[in-house]
Amino acid sequence: MGTTYAEEGNKESLRNATFLQGVTASAIAFALHEAAGWHSIASLVTAGVSVVAFAVSFYVGTLYSHAVQTFMAVGARLRSRQYHPTMHEKLLRRQAEAQRQTGSRYRWQLRFMLVGAVLYFAAVGIHVREGPAPAGTASATK
What we know:
This protein is an all-alpha fold. It has helices at residues 5-35, 41-80, 88-130. The longest helix has 43 residues, at 88-130.
């Protein structure tokens, strides 16, 4: 039995979410690595907040993936018609709820990722504006 257009769309959505999670995890690692030698408190705090935003984006992405998988599983159950007749309405409600959650969670995943990116670029700007570390400090001798 072949897959339907909706199933292919759901699989594509799941791939997109996984890709965004990979980008977000890479952004966390990159931000932590680059900020390791910074000396300005303002740039470090801003970079830290950006990492938190990236982490929230990653977490919301896992919730999004779960909602897509739930939507796909309920849809497969409905198509198979292997359930008690009284469960039909409950399955339809669960599918509608999962579909609503997918849209909301995907938007929040993107929003937090973009907020993290903007904050990280602001942190880099602060770091560049502050200049090199003062002579004699630990970060100046690296």
